User: Fold this.
Amino acid sequence: MEVTCNNTGPCEARISFSIPRDDFDKALAQALTESGKNVRMKGFRAGKVPRSFLEKQFGAEARRQVVEHFRQAIEEHELKPVGRQAIQLDGVDFDTPEGLQHEFEVSLRPTIEMGEYKGLELESELSPVLDEEIDQALDDLRKQQATPQPVGDEGLPSDGVAVLTLRWEREGEVVFEREGLRMSPESAPPGVDPDEFKDALTGTQIDDERELNFTIPADFPEVAEEHLGQEAACHIKITEAFEMIPASDEDIAKLLESDDYDAARETARKQMQEAREQQEVQRQEGVLLQQVLAAHDFELPSTMVEEQVSGRVQQLTMQLSQQGLEGDDLEAELTKQTEAVRDEVVKGTKALFLVSELAEREGLEVTQEDMTGELAQIAQRNQASMEEVMNYYQENRLMDQVAIELIERKVRNFLRENANIQEPS
Assistant:
């Protein structure tokens, strides 16, 4: 087999190859034999179906497989192609006496001159959890676990909850009405002044009514267009009123699976510190990866970039069209956003290649155990079975994406473990 490789760009090449007639015919015969192994035909034993029948049924696909076999051999030994690129066989003559003559365009992985990526300097921003933060977190937890109790003579407190009927009227016409709404005086309906709403509801009892002037929101979806942005009256009638009794120290201790409140505080401190440490790890890894990206500049496969930009612009066009944009307005918005799309694609593609190069240099690999563990976590988060998740990711061709995310995670972890991280100043 003769091969010619001509670079057509920084990361692009045109490959020409020729396969002698005898070599191609042997490979084709083998491909047809493999295709016919399980074919059943009356009067013939399995695997003994006539070549003419196999040629008619499987000839086109067998020829494609032969070309793919030789092409793959070229790529594996001569090139570093980007992913699995489509084979174009239109116009190829498979029956010339000389054999098969074929050429194809291929996007190549960029050549990256790796600089320093170990021992990067970074200052930690991790800080201890303060007593005041624990107090605030437990106070929030008390409120979240509070139990409702009918209000007394003092009426609805500002942090209580009311069940109410809400009615908006404009020029004597009811334009919006809802019953059974649960609202706090501290959360006003859209368009109503928060302070006025809080003052109006605080101290109310069952069957009390209030009326406030307000402006109907210009983007409120449940009101006719002619009323949007107009002045109106907001009528409120209280049907139930509750004060919220915060959870006790004993309740908090039980919720945090602690023996008493002091132990619950320590449990809260530990949980908050662990969460803070995890956030700091993610921040450090992100900063370090950005440092590595900023320190390396290299050409990208233009075809790959343009295909991704084109795909994203098509999705953006559909989204903008669904939002009602059309004509010149649509074109103007596309022009405005396309450059941002291109920048995002370039950054993502650069990160993909750099992460792959670093992983290859350091022998970081995604194992089957890694993949199984990741899919198991996805299944657990979505309350699905492992089989359901596996089938979904395979059917939607998402397994490669999972592998990419896992290898990036390994690279980020590698950068952090090999960085020079200083204590906070």
Remarks:
- The mean pLDDT is 87.
- Residues 104 and 392 are 33 Å apart (CA to CA).
- The first strand starts at residue 2 and ends at 9.
- The first helix runs from residue 21 to 36.
